[in-house]
Amino acid sequence: MKALIIGAGIGGMSAAAALKQQGIECDIFEAVKEIKPVGAALSIWSNGVKCMNHLGMGHIMDQLGGPMHYLAYQDGLTGTVMTQFSLTPLVEAVGERPCPVSRADLQSQMIDWWGRDTIQFGKRIEKVAQDDAGVTAYFTDGTHATGDFMIAADGTHSKVRTHVLGYETERRYAGYVNWNGLVNIDEDIAPGNQWTTFVAEGKRVSIMPIAEGRFYFFFDVPLPKGLAEDRSTVIKDLSDYFKGWAQPVQTLIAAIDPETTNRIEIHDIEPFDTLVKDKIALLGDSAHSTTPDIGQGGCSALEDAVVLGQCFAETQDITNALKNYEEKRRFRVKDLVLKARKRCDVTHGKDMQETQAWYNELRHETGDNIIEGLRNTIAGGPLA
């Protein structure tokens, strides 16, 4: 039995790992000639780390995961600590730590673990076809490939998704712009073992420690789409948007390298129930494109892969396995997209009265409520 895996991102590589565990051959096709992940880093929460362990890649998380032992919110204007607490109770409750990681390093190590030379790069999918014999992928370079079934992990701009759904989806602008990148850990910005977030005015500045003595940072600002801003204006733009904010934020802005800082207009896609059409299944962002506001984008792709493997462990009948995968995932991923959307709106001042109420709650937060929310999200995964 052979699967065609479309996409060599986190979703595609984890899907290949899960199918390999079930003795299924995988041919992996990646659109770009050279991997350049969008975004500097990402949060792999405990559910995602469990999935990596299950797929045989836990050592990658050990190498790349930063020492994130505490969580704090601070007033963006004054720098005053609103709440600060240990994440140890969360780790004890769910049985695994969270791991903020470099996205480029994670994807590169997953590819190396699989075998870089066996992945076909520069294969951008143009269309797909399927019949009783299997599936065929047609690529823009004029080549094609056949297999018994297909896992489409080709991202938020998925070409395969239209075939599966029967219609074109529209990406929804979430209302804010995100700048992200990496800087060396500087305790004048934030403690090196803490996820620190500054909030005010419906804006957010967040810093997470990753491996090799680096901070992953991101800035969020509610803005209209299509502004004439790019890497050449990063320092000026952030200095203007965060004028008057606390000194650690100013120190962070001064430390940024514009050439390695990403600017992204954040979107998601309205959740849908159909993840499978016959012998083609959507996985990762192609199946559930979400905002990053609860840190579950990468984690949900890893969960997809684990469930996919579990379904093929139950039956080698392709149609039944893929339908089981769809049934087990469609409610979970819809819930995560909508949770992220709700958190996005509160964080970014869609209703400033509601956002201000959240700020007030943070000033009385002991950590219990936040940890319980994180625990509930993590516990919804397949390896809880």
TrEMBL record:
Task: Name the SUPFAM superfamilies on file.
Answer: FAD/NAD(P)-binding domain
Q: Keywords assigned by UniProt? A: FAD, Flavoprotein, Monooxygenase, NAD, Oxidoreductase, Purine metabolism
Pathway given in the UniProt record: Purine metabolism; urate degradation
Q: Which cofactor does it need?
A: FAD
Q: Which GO terms describe its biological process?
A: purine nucleobase metabolic process; urate catabolic process
Question: What is the main EC category here?
Answer: oxidoreductase
Please write the reaction equations for the catalytic activity of this protein.
Answer: urate + NADH + O2 + H(+) = 5-hydroxyisourate + NAD(+) + H2O
Which protein family is it in? Belongs to the FAD-dependent urate hydroxylase family.
Q: What is this protein called?
A: FAD-dependent urate hydroxylase
Source organism per UniProt: Marinomonas posidonica (strain CECT 7376 / NCIMB 14433 / IVIA-Po-181)
- Which lineage? Bacteria, Pseudomonadati, Pseudomonadota, Gammaproteobacteria, Oceanospirillales
